[in-house]
């Protein structure tokens, strides 16, 4: 299918599709006239890419997992481990943000309404 059709079926812009192709996340054959010709499987693949991005995976992480996805059910344990690692990363970031929030709230509480004291000085 041509890029316009793929764009319409996935809701992704043509520029996004070209970007994914440059990053190696999407492959197209070139017809004799130079048009990109994407396989039908590209629609499902791009759905996976978008879902993975929404779950916090970077394009580099998605690209690294591409070989796993071609393994089908056999990739289950490896994909599960990948998801568990991402969950642990997110938990670490949440903990760091919670700590940062507490520090900011503490400094805000110590700052008079007049702003006479700078809350950004090291304590």
Automatic annotation (TrEMBL):
Keyword Isomerase: no
Pfam family, one: MerR_1
UniProt entry tagged with the keyword Aminoacyl-tRNA synthetase: no
Source organism: Roseateles saccharophilus
Domain HTH merR-type: 1-68
GO molecular function: DNA binding
Key words, A-Z: DNA-binding, Transcription, Transcription regulation
InterPro entries: DNA-bd_dom_put_sf, MerR-type_HTH_dom, MerR_fam
SUPFAM superfamilies: Putative DNA-binding domain
Family annotation (Gene3D superfamilies): 1.10.1660.10
SMART domains linked: HTH_MERR
Protein name stated in the entry: DNA-binding transcriptional MerR regulator
């Amino acid at each position: 299918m041509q890029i316009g059709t793929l764009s319409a079926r996935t809701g992704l812009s043509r520029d996004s599709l070209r970007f994914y192709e440059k990053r190696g996340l999407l492959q197209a054959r070139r017809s004799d006239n130079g048009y990109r010709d994407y396989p039908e499987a590209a629609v499902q693949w791009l759905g996976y890419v978008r879902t993975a991005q929404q779950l916090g995976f970077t394009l580099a992480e998605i690209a690294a997992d591409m070989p796993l996805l071609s393994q089908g059910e056999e990739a289950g344990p490896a994909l599960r481990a990948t998801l568990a690692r991402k969950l642990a990363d997110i938990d670490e970031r949440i903990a760091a943000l919670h700590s940062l929030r507490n520090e900011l709230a503490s400094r805000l509480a110590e700052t008079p309404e007049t702003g006479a004291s700078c809350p950004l000085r090291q304590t």
